[in-house]
Amino acid sequence: MPAERPAQNRERILFFMAVLHLYCHALLSLLTPLYVAIQKDFALPRVEPVTGLSTCGAVTFALATLVAGLLVDRLPSRLVAGGGLVVQGLGLVAMAAAPTLGWARVWVIVSAVGAAGYHPVSARVIAGLYPEAVGRAMGLAGMGAGLGFFLGPRFSGRVTGLAGWRMAMGLAGWGAVAVAAAYVLFTREPILSERPRPEGQVPAGPRQKAVFVLALAALGLALIPRDFAGGGIETLNALYLQHAQGLSVGLVGALLGYKGLLSLVTNPIFAWLSDRGSRLWWWAGTLLLSALCGAAIPFLPRGAAMAALVLHGMFLLANYPIFESALLERVPARLRGRAYALILAVVGSFAAFAPKFVGARVDALVSPAAVHAGPELFQALYLALAAVMLLGLAGVPLLVVVRRRSDGMHG
Question: 285 is in which domain, residue-wise?
Fold first, then answer.
């Protein structure tokens, strides 16, 4: 590659971080509108085993992220993120040919291992490339997630309606391999900035490091309600729209994706506003609004319910880059991958059971012979999940503790 200014490589890397973020979440969200289609294809009497595919993938994703976090602080970031996307894509290609639900589960797990490479890489690279505007950079990369959440379910729903869910998985998988190749070919390994240790500050000792790790783990535990409820409401939305509103799988995929389309605009705006001050207040506010919109969905007429569904997802997607900015701007570059991976592993290991839980609850609410289920059957479950999401506000004071404890971690 010809010689170029560091700023050019920095901008190119941020662009590809957004593209990889797009693919990471697009591929992770492909399954959501397809639960009923896969249930019918494998002739299953219940939907819970199919929603359990997402649980298997999410648990694997969380645990593998911890390993990826250790690797990214030691190996080239392009190898971890690019190689991971290849594995994720090939897992989906293999899933498209799965003869049984058991084999589909195996390939979902393989795909999730590959998906785990992105977030530790982005956490370390973006904060290191843009120390002066980490919130804005995270927001721009978050646009990729928004577009992924829009395109993933929309693509899978549309292709499934035309050619079946297996074709949707296969096409998405080969697309991931192509994007990974472009990322490796057109970027160079970044040089990251490190926040200098304050004058006279003593390097952290073993006890201070242990306290910092415990604070990170506690923060991860506090965030479980946010992610459990977020994944639960997303799963419930897909089932609610088909069972209670009678929508086709293609239309369900489109509606689930609109939140991502809206977040293309709102994510960088919220992140930019948080850069200007009161970052923790913006984080708490977006979480509160997401919970309120989610709780309202089954109580509203169809049009208003669709708007509440999109707004719920929009505010939840805005919450993530604000949180990441608040955490990573204070953590040393050499620890960012591991710190973020530890939180994601703790959160994801528990929150991953949300799709399986919701699938089991919907099986109990909706008779297999029922053609239509009224919205009132879903109201209590939506309210319960929204209440759980609000418990995630306990993460605010813990995030303050982590930020303070990170000050001595530069030694």
Answer: 6-190+204-408
d(CA 114, CA 87): 5
Structural domain includes residue 1: no
More confident of the two residues 278 and 229: 229
- Give per-residue pLDDT as tens, 280-316: 888 899 999 999 999 999 999 988 998 999 899 889 9
CB atoms within 10 A of CB 189: 12
Would 280 be classed as within a structural domain?
Answer: yes
Query: pTM surpassing 0.85?
Result: no
The answer to the question of residue 398 being in a domain is yes
The DSSP annotation for 268-292 comes to: HHHHHHHHTS-HHHHHHHHHHHHHH
| Total domains in the fold of the chain | 1
Instruction: Give the model's confidence band at 81: pLDDT under 50 very low, under 70 low, under 90 confident, else very high.
Output: confident
Contact 14, 130 (CB under 8 A): yes
Task: Answer whether residue 197 is part of any domain.
Answer: no
**pLDDT at residue 23 above 90?**
no
Which tokens go with 406? 């990170």
Measure the CA–CA gap between 152 and 174, rounded to whole angstroms: 14
Report how far apart the first and last C-alpha atoms of the chain are (Å, whole number). 36
Instruction: Tell me the CB-side half-sphere exposure of residue 186, using CA atoms within 13 A.
Output: 15
Encode pLDDT of 249-289 as tens digits.
778 877 877 777 777 778 778 877 887 777 888 889 999 99
Q: How far apart are CA 110 and CA 60, in angstroms?
A: 8
Asked if 244 and 377 touch (Cβ cutoff 8 Å), the reply is yes
DSSP-derived secondary structure for 28-65? HTSSGGGHHHHHHHTT-S-SHHHHHHHHHHHHHHHHHH
